[in-house]
Amino acid sequence: MEEKKIKVAWVCHFSNMEVRERLKFKAYVDKRDIKDYAQWNTNAINEFKKFKNIELHVISQHTGLSSDIQEFSEEGIHYHFFRSEDDCLIFRIKRKLFKGKYLTPEYKDNVKRIISFVDHIKPELIHMIGAENPSYGISALSMPKGVPLIVTLQTLMIDPDFFENYPITKQMYDYRSGIERKVLQRADYVTCLAQRFKDVLNDNFKPKLRILEMALIVGENINITNCKKEYDFVYFAKEIEKAVDWAIEAFSIAYNKVPNITLNIIGGYTKSTKESIDRRLNELNIANNVIFSGSLPTHDDVIAQVRKSRFAILPLKIDLISGTIREAMSNGLPVVTTITPSTPKLNETRTSVLLSEKGDFEGMANNMLYLLENDKAAKCLQSNAYKTMEERHNNETSAKLWCEAYYAVLDNNNNGTPIPNHLMK
Length: 425
What we know:
By secondary structure, this protein is of the alpha/beta class. The protein is built from 14 helices and 14 strands. It has helices at residues 17-22, 39-48, 89-97, 108-121, 134-137, 170-186, 195-204, 244-257, 271-284, 299-306, 323-330, 361-373, 375-392, 395-415; strands at residues 6-13, 54-61, 69-74, 77-82, 125-129, 149-152, 189-191, 211-212, 231-239, 263-268, 290-294, 309-313, 335-338, 354-356.
């Protein structure tokens, strides 16, 4: 029997070229300056365009909008965008006046707009993607009771290792992790696959949260085609501050042994971050061999630039497995990274990445030199990475699991039917 069509609202944040072409921006905003972000949400939307049994409404903030609210529908997806209250002249003035301090807005206007959307849509189920972003996450506390609320983790700030391994001030951390904790307490279900996250959640919440076996839709297209290489190594991130310092230290050690190698750095940075990096590059005498490409507009632009390098150096400080590692592996770049609770799983079936302990720059450098000196081993690593990505991440399968979970949650909520074991281990 055909499944009853259900109405689902996602609350999230994302941007891609497709939606930017439909949105209207302030006169002084050049939409070409706005970059893609939260690619996993774009992936998920693209999969849900194929489904006829879900009426999907996507509620998202977007920077630079010419009006407070903009809505449109395309390919069966209903988009509801709003301008965040921190994207206004008054907030920008405050930011300048209180330079160096993190402002903690209450986001009352954001909550009103999100709840207004929800009240109008009248979804049967609400799915919030990301609990750590106060600008929309705080709306979870005002969601209508009786409508199941699922929250999917993008990261987990209450992880005790987070603060020491992420570029964030104590004030910002306390504010954001505090809201994250409240959001998770409010959720009817929290979704993640990583055992590390499950352990932290179970340690922090009594009674235990109900955890669904769902994760972000993070698969990358496998691209085995060859392209011209311009650099030896690449480090890339949305904001390079996350771990670029470790990548530079490892690169400098490898450079001292092979002084003609190059490193391409892709991603955004503040003026102070760039000045600090430049000082360190000059101290290490490697400035001429490190090339910055900055922040690029679209995900496709980033991948095209990444593919110009032979290998990727992508150390992790707090992420379990980063999107950048998946992107590099899917595009034929052998990866040098660090040991986290999850990266060794990439090597469970076959060696797919080269690992060393966090902060072990010598170990990372040795893995970089191994790739430079062993072409056969590098090609084997490349082949293994393709296979591992194909096995671990299939966006269509993941999206179908989301749909199954939606129906199971609604059946549980409405009829008391137990959630199937494979969805809630």
